[in-house]
Amino acid sequence: MTLHVPLKVVVVGHGMVGSRLVDELVRRSAESFDITVLGAEPYEPYNRVLLSDVVAGRTDVAAITMPDPGGDHVTTLRGVAAVSVDRRARTVTDAAGAVHAYDRLVLATGSRARVLPLPGLVADDGTVNLPAGVHALRTLDDAREIVAASVNTPRAVVVGGGVLGVEAAYGLAGRGLQVTLVDPSPAPMSRQLDTAAGAVLAAGLRDAGVTLRLGARPSEVLVAGGRAVGVRLGPGRGGDGGTGHGGTGHDGGDAGDVVAAGLVVLTAGTVPETGIAREAGLSTDRGIVVGHDLACPDDPRVFAIGDCAQPPQGSRGLVAEGWDQARRLADHLASLVAVRAQEAQRAAAPREHLRFPHEGERPSMAVRLGTLLASRAATDQGVDTRGTDVVKVKAGALSIVSMGVSGPREPAPGHRAVALHDAAAGRYVEAVVADGILVGATCVGDPRVAADLTAAYTRRTPVPVDPAFLLLTPVMPSAEPASSPEHMPDDATVCRCNGVTKHDITACWDDGARSADDIAAATRATTGCGSCREAVCGLADWLAATRDGGAPVEPGAALVHASAGEG
Amino acid sequence: MSTTVAAPAAPQKTHCPYCALQCGMELTPAGTPGPDGRAPLPVTVAPRDFPTNAGGLCQKGWTSATVLGVPDRLTTPLVRGADGGLTAVTWDAALDLVVSRVRAVQAEHGRHGVAIFGGGGLTNEKAYALGKFARTVLRTPNIDYNGRFCMSSAAAAGNRAFGADRGLPFPLTDLGGADVVLLLGSNPAETMPPFVQHLAGARGRGGLMVVDPRRSATARLADDGQGVHLQPVPGTDMVVLLALLHVVVAEGLADRDYLAARTTGWDDVVRSVAAWWPERAETVCGIPAEELRATARRLAAAAPARGGRGAYVLTGRGVEQSAQGTATVTAAINLSLALGLVGREGSGYGCLTGQGNGQGGREHGQKNDQLPGYRKIDDPAARAHVAGVWGVDPATIPGPGLPAVALLGSLGTPGGPHALFVHGSNVLVSAPNADRVRERLAALELLVVCDVVPSETARMADVVLPVTQWAEEEGTMTSLEGRVIRRRQAVDPPGEARSELWLLAELARRLGSDVAFPTDPAVVFDELARASAGGVADYSGLSHARLDVAEEAGAPGLFWPCPAEPPGEPAHPGTPRMFLEEFATPDGRARMVPVDHAGPTDDVRDDAPTYLVTGRVLQHYQSGAQTRRVPELDRIVPEPYVELHPQLGLRTGVADGARVRVTSARGAVEAVARWTDTVRPDTVFMPFHWSGAGSVNRITSDAVDPISSMPEFKVCAVSVAPVPQMADDVGAHDAHDAHDAHDAQEVPA
């Protein structure tokens, strides 16, 4: 029974974060909301993170479609962009001219690819006009076009050596293209990796067939007949591009030269989509400014989540952050509804609002959640977003992960960093520890250690006394299993199913057993799963060889004899 | 008083008293001296060739005869006297007392004020009679059983997806031909050793895949190229499954023809795994993305649609005893369906049932919401049919009652039960958050415990009734593969011990019921078979006699469903492989349901930064019931212990071999530390076969799955610390342990 008018929520943006918010709201209490979603793209929500896998040919496009929460309480308008917000009237106007009223507005407009202001891409008046063959990698259409283009051209240039650039370059190289990755820094992923880690990654990319042009910037995209034909490079960061020093730089060629390519992929970062917020008079900086509660400081009825948002702790543009924000905002909106519902219920009838499962029907999730939240101390400062800043590169056999405090940075007091630099084996691991907790790590080239570091980081499990143990998989080296009976320790278990040790078997031999079957009858070895049959036969052979034909020997003496006899 | 049928003197073909593998064994009555010069055992045990064990027995089975002669076997009814102690009385006195107290509780609290807690070790006949007794004599809705602790999540998921829940819907021996067997949360090398024989084929082809947070004995079977071991963070098995399915979808490995022809819901499931690409899954489950991909590819390559010899996905308690257990099993089922494995000879999904009659025990009416034949208690047609067999008005059959954890939690509370019968379960050791269970039991007005030894629960009881076990009784069990098999009597019950069938009939009569309760197991089975007719688990074509004849003819046991055929028709042959043509759903298609990972209810945090997982050791069974009383077993693993990684030991100051305290939000336990690198550094492991200071279920979580009500035994957050070395303390603990270890016993539960 709904005792209240549903909360009208308009969500602008139907990407990974906007659709996740709707899903979270519907899961909590669909009937409490009346949700309208405006999505500029014509598609169902899809997993943008996997677009680089689409480019790499590692995933079926059909596999990236995300759940599209529907039902009676959700109206989704695809291919309909939001145009403006009237905060006084609490309405959003869409591109088709329709006006949508809201109680709460959520901006999940995402971000767009940054297009470098290069000749060939941007006209003198600043308008972006990408020629054929030049693509950002931001939308499904982009990915499809890149895949189509990759069929028709043997060479590609990827502009921007961040995470997406590395993934795209690796993926296109895997398709057999000659790929050049251009980045102004001395090593790829310079935002996440320090020079040493970056060098290991660079070597891995080269092994995968990617040509690196580091310390270089594109100065122009060359266009012929409306199609891109190449990229002209100029010097990169600090103007040191052409010198090739440091060993991490160039794979030949001089800055100022031209790399021929029929496909140019722009992966030089993203820009939050803040236009609609700015025009509505909301504070924007790099993104739409929000507090820890994800609400705009100018208007508590308006929220921003995902790539478009700029929360106090900053944003890294990772989907885990956006999903965490969607979850938190859904909690908030559900509790808002729950509080309203409780008030309405109290007004309607003075009855107990909490019921327990065995006393009848379960109270709605919203009621339970509202109660839970109300019971918590109101600590809204400093939201715990741990674990949402793990950067894991999707590049097949190349394992690269970065999290928290790591990579290029100023030394921080109280932080202890340990590192393993094993360039020849393509491995680099750094772990940063503070107060017994892993606060950051980088791991290139060791997927098991990377997975362990991630688990320790996201869960804040305490680190070993000596954090250097974090640099290796925590499996103790063990001796090779005994290769022959005489080297087997006396207390070694031969038959697990029946708990029979080598000692038990030698003892029963001494009691008269003379074959594997005798041993089985006396000790029950081999009578469980039977896996130890071979070992028991081996022991019987050894015992027959070493004990029969001589005087009965002590177990210790038997070993001596045996090693002499079989050596 | 009824007489007990005298045991025959000839060797009897029966099955092991312990787990659901139900290894075939032959018992030869009397005479041979016991090991170590003890009194002669009443029978000698020899393994026999039966499909699940193929002539093998583990140490528990070999030594099972010892259990028949334990010194403190209950042989007479006991009643708590004025001095607070338990005193031997006659059956008449004990039953009169029970009847008068039950009537008093009913008068004060109503019929639902009396509850029953059953067990998955009881024979089919006993389980059936117990449900019937609850519904027709007590007329209480409140009956549930310890199978809620082991099978309920797999059952809920199986019923939802396939319309039926039979642990293995195929003969166990089918596993041998597969290229890949994927085991999740199961450790059969420890829990049912002869099972390992059936993995030989997959191991030989490098296809044993084990998902377990520990490098368990089973995980080590994958060493040396015989397979792979994935070692996820506890509580994240579901993420592994979602990621495997993601890879299947992303790389176009699904069996699309099968999905189109035999399932519904695939599109929604595809969307639901779009969010679990391997790199994201890695950050949650701790398994490298490329290992997840390789595993998915290997599994898919084994699928028949891709030219493989077959693949099986099998789940166990490690993934099921979770607040997301039903969802996790559903994820395993979705993966199996995506690859076209289910309902195809040589491939499939199954769950490895744990308790001896864990399968049959969940089919005949011990569950709170169920009637015999795996029927739903809120289905009017089912109520009418069963009421007809019972000779009662359908309207008198109560509706669904409380599931186990809620039932135990409500004991002695306003509106909850105030009298409880316990059969074949030692809830003080086997239920989660066990100290709370102790509180609730103490609040009862009447606790009646039927058992073979003075279990901890029995020691709290007002009335203890000695009942028959294993080789002392006739009946049937249903093994993990849904095969109905005969349990046969080889020895006479000791002293005054009686079957529950007799006990329930007596109570019914004394409580004034005119509902018939036959006491001959063969007759009870015939009634059970009629009651199950037309249900999902249809036994109506079976009888003790038919099972005996089949076994003599070399076909031991028959698989349900085995409906009665009309007169003149050939008997139904049983159903070794289910779902070959269609599923038991209304439209005949398997239902795929999207699920998502939520994580453990009690997850690690700063003051409890380590995961606790629990499990078994080879030498013990459940709470150690029989096994700790068998010297050969107890000697090998005499006490509980805590496995922890040396790095965790070094950090917390817990030395190898020292005593360690493990503390959760519910309390603390203490045991000996064992350093090992087979467990993740963020995880400790404890076996659960003991009571007392090291009884791990005192600190496990009683959060439950929202669908199955199964408790989250298998993962919770703890802190780990050394126990201060003070001589007096240590001595006190040891004494406490020894005392409890001696007393804490239970029948197969």
UniProtKB/TrEMBL annotation, chain A:
Chain spans, region Disordered: 233-253
Gly residues bias locations: 233-250
Domain of life: Bacteria
Requisite cofactors: [4Fe-4S] cluster; siroheme
This protein's pathway: Nitrogen metabolism; nitrate reduction (assimilation)
Stored Gene3D superfamilies: BFD-like [2Fe-2S]-binding domain (1.10.10.1100), FAD/NAD(P)-binding domain (3.50.50.60)
InterPro entries for this protein: BFD-like_2Fe2S-bd_dom, BFD-like_2Fe2S-bd_dom_sf, FAD-bd_PCMH, FAD/NAD-bd_sf, FAD/NAD-binding_dom, NasD-like
Domain named FAD-binding PCMH-type: residues: 127-329
SUPFAM superfamilies reported in the protein's UniProt record: FAD/NAD(P)-binding domain
Family, similarity comment: Belongs to the nitrite and sulfite reductase 4Fe-4S domain family.
Listed name of the protein: Assimilatory nitrate reductase (NADH) beta subunit
Source organism of the structure: Isoptericola halotolerans
Keywords carried by this UniProt record: Heme, Iron, Iron-sulfur, Metal-binding, Oxidoreductase
From TrEMBL, chain B:
Top-level taxon of origin: Bacteria
Region named Disordered: 730-749
Keywords recorded for this protein, A-Z: 4Fe-4S, Iron, Iron-sulfur, Metal-binding
CDD domains found in the cross-reference section: MopB_CT_Fdh-Nap-like
InterPro entries associated with the record: Asp_de-COase-like_dom_sf, MoPterin_dinucl-bd_dom, Mopterin_OxRdtase, Mopterin_OxRdtase_4Fe-4S_dom, Prok_molybdopt-oxidoreductase
PANTHER family linked to this entry: NADH-QUINONE OXIDOREDUCTASE SUBUNIT G (PTHR43105:SF10), RESPIRATORY NITRATE REDUCTASE (PTHR43105)
Protein name (Swiss-Prot/TrEMBL): Assimilatory nitrate reductase (NADH) alpha subunit apoprotein
All residue ranges annotated as the 4Fe-4S Mo/W bis-MGD-type domain in the record: 9-69
Highest classification ranks of the organism: Bacteria, Bacillati, Actinomycetota, Actinomycetes, Micrococcales
Pfam families per the UniProt record, alphabetical: Molybdop_Fe4S4, Molybdopterin, Molydop_binding
